[in-house]
Amino acid sequence: MNATANKTAQVISSEELLKHLQGHRNLTRRTIEAFPEKEFFSHSIGGMRTFAEMTMELLGIAGPGIQEIVSGKSAPLDEHVEHGNSKEKILQLWDEATEQINTLWPQISTERFQENILLFGMYEGTVISSIFYFIDNEIHHRGQGFVYLRSLGVEPPAFYER
Amino acid sequence: MNATANKTAQVISSEELLKHLQGHRNLTRRTIEAFPEKEFFSHSIGGMRTFAEMTMELLGIAGPGIQEIVSGKSAPLDEHVEHGNSKEKILQLWDEATEQINTLWPQISTERFQENILLFGMYEGTVISSIFYFIDNEIHHRGQGFVYLRSLGVEPPAFYER
């Protein structure tokens, strides 16, 4: 095997991982859109958070997390941005995070994914384990949002469409 | 950068991806364990499937999917194994799949992750996109299982523990 082959044989490339992350974020965006405005901010099951509160957590993680990975500047996790109970405002914040992530991502070199970091000043891991946490946590809560939607009689978006 | 550096700079290595997959499968196992026996097979919200039915889907995907990736032999997706409404039997099937995946995984070379496949004779993708689908689909349904548990007044396992 030569150097070129070594270079191209990636389990997953950085570009594919970005596409994977943004595909999931796109599906979450459509899940937010599927909620009736009132229930997005009020509906819950078994004492859990509303889907709006879960969404604010997701917004506090992905954009700021990638920013911290790129800049090296740590800031505490912040899940509270003023949204005035407006889904439109939250979707706008979502789209801004999408752009922010697309802009920052190419600044993460392949070598950096295995680097140790302390995200938000408290979560130990590597860059790749942190990014997987962002994705997995989003899938986890969105799955919960799907149950909320079903319990409201609303059809969720198709899971396999990104 | 020399050839060695090229070879070692992986966004995620195959070994790490296996650990990631099995960490998620371990958390799902603890989620199954957390369910009261009766409700595992009967409880549902909003007309959705029981967590037992979702679990049988997961069992139909991960082990058989990795087997197909390794062997190249396609078989239709099968979500129906006789379990006699016994959680113990399903946990036994789960552990067998864990062993099967651990045994088969090292036979997937790094180069193969980007290979195109038609999984279960019907799902187009690459080896890596298929494996991510296994993981993401499991996280998605387990998140739903967490809502079922909360609605039953049962504390789910910690999401961050694998």
TrEMBL record, chains A, B:
The keyword Metal-binding applies. The keyword Thylakoid does not apply. Keywords: Metal-binding. A divalent metal cation binds at residue 141. It comes from the Bacteria. GO terms for molecular function: metal ion binding. Belongs to the DinB family. This is Damage-inducible protein DinB. It comes from Aequorivita soesokkakensis. The lineage of its organism: Bacteria, Pseudomonadati, Bacteroidota, Flavobacteriia, Flavobacteriales.
